[in-house]
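User: Quick sanity check before I run a bigger batch. Here is a single chain. Can you write out its predicted 3D structure?
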Amino acid sequence: MSGTLFRGGRVKTLDAPGHADWVLVADGLIEAIGLRPDEPGCDRTVELDGATLIPAFCDAHVHLPATGLYRKGMDFRGQHRSAPILEAFTERARSDDGLLFGGNFEDPLDEPVTRHHLDAAVGERAALLARADMHSCIVSSALLDHLSIGKLEGVDCDDDGRPTGYLREQAAAEAWRWFDTNLPEPQQRDAITAAVQLAYSKGVASVHEMYVAEWRGWSSLSVLREALAGVALDVLIYVASGDVERVQSMNLGRIGGDFFLDGSFGSHTAWMKNGYVSAPPAGTPPNGIAYRTDEELFDFFTRSQRAGLQTGVHAIGDAAIEQALTAWEKVAAESGEAAVAAQGHRIEHFECASDDHIARARRLGLKISVQPAFDAFWGGADGLYSARIGEQRALDMNRFGTMGRAGLTLGAGSDSTVTPLDPFLQMQALCMHHVEAERITAGQALRMHTLGSRDLGGQGEVAGAIEPGRWADLIAVDRDPEACEAEDLASTHVLGTWIKGKRVWPEEEAETR
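Assistant: Done. Predicted structure follows.
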């Protein structure tokens, strides 16, 4: 029989209870599955050697270029001291004549970093230090001098009213736009290639790229699309822009994604109905930042609906979620709830959703893209969320279990680089939520990262499970993720990744790039 036979392990199909012993792949599709006594002969065999074969993952919210830059640049995740960060910039300035970039730091550092500290490290070079949430950054004076930020919210100032170099939201967007515009194309391409390889190593066959045109401009989008041409990784691009006609002309079928209605908790910019417990810095409103007026959002939704585009928005705080739902309800009043539901619109993050929000989203047929590791990193009574808005409101965030029980369509992603591009880390976060009632099983978490995330992109019928007729997107792992302890999920090792039947990982055994 022609094709490739995967045998010698445990196959988790997700399509039915139990497991299979073998999978036959032909022409990029699952041809058949079965138990050992029925195993067919085949002209090519992949021996699993006792490994578990599961559907490959779909990460429903990533930023590939930034992910690759962090892989090749300076990543300060977990670093709480300013001195090592500044020392790294000093060393990089000595050895690299390109743009200086590092990120993933979190407040508070032991000593605050300002543009003056970066200047001392890099001289008169342009340098950008990104906060973990990417909604704020610190820039050197040389970079700051290129920006027009005088009338924008989110510019931190010193006692004399001069910018400290710490920029949030729209002000930070000006810095990102300058950075991307001036980042050489070879450096952009190298970063995208590094991100694709990282995805393969983590068993990811598909990603939803959240391209923020408002931050990054349009030229970098062309570089991104060219760099992804011919790669096996299935990339659905969501362009965050209000230019519906321009996006429609690209034949992407979708718009928005990280179309910001608000910011993030780490930067004090998630838009809340009630204010922060820890006051935002001067220059940022006490309730966070609202990006759009109600009229602007309704107009955007109306134009996107009429254009037939699936539409996504970024909404973290309860005020932002309320704004999104109210605007979609107005569209539904004109176009009909069935028409709105048919386009599969989505909300990214949905962190501070109330019972009422969940019920209204369900009625509108909205799909929800969640980032499970947000709770693992910043949730709980002693986490950053509690520090920002108080313990009770923080414990009512990221209600994954409640959303699932309510019947919402849920998919999962990392928001890489905000949290690592690592589905097993995300699964572990779902199973070990700080609030016990919001935990889900490993099997449910696996489905959320495969079938659920594929559903968010409208691919649930063709991928996400090991079933005849679906794409042969498969990964072999060193344990059964449904049987191991929750705390061991993040230690799962990916032994091999196949996309449409072609091996892409390990890199030295890859049949396609």
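The domain at 185-460+471-497 is CATH 3.20.20.140 (TIM Barrel).

User: Great, the batch can go ahead then.
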